[in-house]
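Tokens in:
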């Protein structure tokens, strides 16, 4: 993970990584709870769109959740 590499932006990279990870997990889960589907795409508001049920790239979310 790049946020573990020493350098002048290490702290910022770590903060951005945590925030993006949290937002992604929260949104995919929220959309799944609301409509029972995992979507191919999510619009700017976070609403699922495109193909569903979709377990392509969105299936990586559990791997992201398992990241230590």
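Residues out:
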């Amino acid at each position: 993970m790049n946020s573990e590499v020493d350098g002048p932006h290490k702290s910022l990279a770590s903060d951005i990584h945590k925030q993006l990870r949290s937002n992604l997990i929260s949104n995919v889960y929220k959309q799944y709870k609301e409509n029972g589907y995992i979507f191919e795409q999510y619009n700017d508001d976070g609403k699922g769109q495109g193909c569903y049920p979709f377990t392509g790239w969105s299936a990586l979310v559990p791997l992201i959740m398992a990241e230590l």
